[in-house]
Amino acid sequence: MDGKKDFTLHPVNYPGPKLRAFLEKIHAEGMHYIVINDPGIGVNKSYGTYQRGLANDVFIKYEGKPFLAQVWPGAVHFPDFLNPKTVEWWGDEIRRFHELAPIDGLWIDMNEVSNFCNGLCTIPKGRICPNGTGPGWICCLDCKNVTKTKWDDPPYKINASGIQAPIGYKTIATSATHYNGVREYDAHSLYGFSETIATHKGLQAIEGKRPFILTRATFVGSGHYAAHWTGDNKGTWEDLKYSISTVLNFGIFGVPMVGSDICGFYPAAPPLEELCNRWIQVGAFYPFSRDHANYYSPRQELYQWKSVTKSSRNALGMRYKLLPYLYTLNYEAHKTGAPIVRPLFFTFPNIPELYELSTQFLVGSNVMVSPVLEKAKTKVSALFPPGTWYSLFDMTQVIVTKEPHYRSLDAPLHVVNVHLYQNTILPMQRGGMLTKEARMTPFTIVVAFPLGASEGVAKGNLFLDDDELPEMKLGNGKSTYMDFHATTSNGTVKIWSEVQESKYALDKGWYIEKVTVLGLNGIGGAFDILVDGSKVEDTSKLEFETEEHKFIDKLEDGGHKKSMMLDIKGLELPIGKNFAMSWKMGI
């Protein structure tokens, strides 16, 4: 930004032509560019956004005049997003900026709203505010507290900021007024939400694409429009642990696309290396996954340390293989409101031991992450609900339990334990450096039966679409949905799919190259594949590989049931066509 003013470019550091050339390059590679934006509009007579805002009367008022506050640019006014004219003006400012720099989304910060000053303020005479020295968050306006109204000093006191501060502390005075005379006292919690809706409308109007918005302030309904990060956390083991319960809570609040700043926004004290190793192992499975720190922090990009680079490739590599599963969970969230990341009790509601568990979590219903959350630990004690659990990084490794049990798992510095539950069919791809690249790779479906089951079922699903359409839905000619089913019964295994709206996936040329079956015996014979009802006669390219399952500990019944992982490779099953395969199990 030029002088920290919204919708501007610094003429030296980010000249328009160079930035546009850079964006053209990354867009060609399939990458995206998101910039930060704050609601405070700098009071500056030469600043077009401010001038157009004044002309359209879009700012929150105090006794008829725009309310004055201070944020990063210095003195600012705050747009009143409850005013329809403000929504139009904001959308026009986004459009103007997009012509200057064709960004792919907006990261809207400081929108609780955050104010560096308190009360009623004026711009000081005879001194520059801020003067460019010291931290920018020290109030330098001339201010006086407002306590004369019941809105600013209500009889019911809240413990604001943990210091029993006045209700309008470091925000807009609560007696200020919005559109139609609505007081800030009544509208405060809606500020970030109303800005999110206006931002969504403005971005979508530009190119008709699905907007990407990341917002700090949320309200009920924010998850319909935006992703959320959990604010300014610390680079501490405590905050790493706390991030899990925060992300789980926001999923329950209806904000499914959520994550915390990986490695921490404020570093407690360097070195961060071990903490960063463990944090990326958690953060790779946040729905919204971002390493972020404040301007004054020591460098903490994941490539700063060789050990963290290794952990990141491991954990993020798995994330990118799981993109079809994660994207299908986004579709489920959009349709039903179900969180993407969930507490264990969502899948196992009848196990009271799970109700307070927030050191592990589920991605969807069936993928369990059990991370290390403490310093200098190379083992983790994980609670396993009853059933069969397969390690996602080595699917030959299995844990079986009849009752909820804690298990001690090896977790060297680069290892995060992730397990897949029985009765699941999990769609995966090969992964890649970019989501665009990963999305075009062939698919694997992993079919997880209960270990050694003579009778069993498994199911899963897959949603694919043009991921920039405004809405995730079927019926537009640019999406495909598949249900996967599997059964084992009387020594016969069957796996099949049911497709809705096949055209989009067929046009993209996606196909399944491998089916991995967990927990059964190998193929004994009578192997058949049908595609859209027609038998595939030539199966000469197919390869069948088996590897016996390894047990992390003894089964509770004292014995080991002999079962194995079966890979069926060399398949070319089109995503978008119904397939069915079956075989008799052998020994």
UniProtKB/TrEMBL annotation:
<dbReference type="Pfam" id="PF21365">
    <property type="entry name" value="Glyco_hydro_31_3rd"/>
</dbReference>
<dbReference type="InterPro" id="IPR013780">
    <property type="entry name" value="Glyco_hydro_b"/>
</dbReference>
<feature type="domain" description="Glycosyl hydrolase family 31 C-terminal">
    <location>
        <begin position="337"/>
        <end position="426"/>
    </location>
</feature>
<keyword id="KW-0326">Glycosidase</keyword>
<dbReference type="InterPro" id="IPR000322">
    <property type="entry name" value="Glyco_hydro_31_TIM"/>
</dbReference>
<keyword id="KW-0732">Signal</keyword>
<feature type="domain" description="Glycoside hydrolase family 31 TIM barrel">
    <location>
        <begin position="1"/>
        <end position="329"/>
    </location>
</feature>
<protein>
    <recommendedName>
        <fullName>Alpha-glucosidase</fullName>
    </recommendedName>
</protein>
<comment type="similarity">
    <text>Belongs to the glycosyl hydrolase 31 family.</text>
</comment>
<dbReference type="InterPro" id="IPR017853">
    <property type="entry name" value="GH"/>
</dbReference>
<dbReference type="Pfam" id="PF01055">
    <property type="entry name" value="Glyco_hydro_31_2nd"/>
</dbReference>
<keyword id="KW-0325">Glycoprotein</keyword>
<keyword id="KW-0378">Hydrolase</keyword>
<dbReference type="InterPro" id="IPR048395">
    <property type="entry name" value="Glyco_hydro_31_C"/>
</dbReference>
<dbReference type="InterPro" id="IPR030458">
    <property type="entry name" value="Glyco_hydro_31_AS"/>
</dbReference>
<dbReference type="GO" id="GO:0016798">
    <property type="term" value="F:hydrolase activity, acting on glycosyl bonds"/>
</dbReference>
